[in-house]
Amino acid sequence: MSAATELAHPPFAHPRTRELAEFLAERRADLRAAVVEHLAVLEGRVAALLGPAVEEARALGTTESEASSVRPRLDAERIRDRSRAIEAAFRASPAGAPT
Q1: Per-residue confidence at 8, pLDDT binned at 50, 70, 90?
Q2: Does the pTM of the predicted model rise above 0.85?
């Protein structure tokens, strides 16, 4: 049992409670790994798509001066809305994702 699970569910807890807590902790770790893998796949694909255009712009003398955050441009409500599932394309889906 992990230290975090041990603190949240002391050894005197019912065995089924401890078992469930450990299962959920493992599942969260699996899901975190899948999210990181998904982001890495997307980052590589975006870099491959934008790379030629960036190189062409650099060759034409364009300088990279913009460094502001893109966060203000994101639709935070849409990101937080869990009422509508958004499926990633197969190419962007994590290969090691839990089933």
Answers
A1: low
A2: no
